[in-house]
Write a structure and sequence with these properties.
The protein is an alpha+beta fold and 148 residues long. Helix content is 49%, strand content 24%. The chain contains five helices and five strands.
């Protein structure tokens, strides 16, 4: 039983951004309600270009095509999430065929966050733009980085 509790706790950690895990760890036992506080971040948005046309092709195959496209998109976005995580970013949310990630500034400012976001974007574009994801289907990826 202890293993299943540990496994469940480990699994939930995957859904909690690093910055929030760090805050919770530095204030153990603190009872806090809902709080809002500004974060200084570098944000990156990645989107599959031309997705509407691609989705029409799969939709024309009926339910099987829609399920196939959902599986392909899940796999593709999962790879992007892995890259974001390796570069120290947190995924804020998924938006259908897109994702929003961010890198929090540290005490020294934004230089490290900007560098990590840029390197992450470079890797994503290099590895996953023009990715062959199905029979006669190629995903184009577009990205933007913003410092808030």
């Amino acid at each position: 039983m202890a293993n299943s509790v540990h496994d469940a706790a480990s699994e939930r950690q995957g859904y909690i951004p690093r910055w929030l895990r760090g805050r919770l760890a530095s204030h153990p036992g603190e009872q806090t309600g809902v709080q809002a506080a500004p974060l200084q971040v570098v944000a990156a948005f990645f989107d599959i270009s031309g997705f509407s046309a691609i989705s029409r092709k799969f939709r024309d195959k009926g339910d099987v095509g829609v399920e196939e496209l959902a599986r392909i998109v899940d796999d593709y976005l999962g790879k992007l999430i892995d890259v974001v995580t390796r570069w120290g970013g947190d995924v804020e949310s998924l938006y259908g065929d897109a994702l929003l990630a961010f890198w929090r500034e540290d005490a020294n400012g934004c230089e490290r966050a900007v560098s990590s976001a840029r390197r992450c974007a470079d890797e994503i574009i290099r590895r996953y733009d023009r990715a062959r994801v199905g029979t006669n289907v190629e995903f184009r990826i577009r990205g933007a980085i913003v410092h808030t």
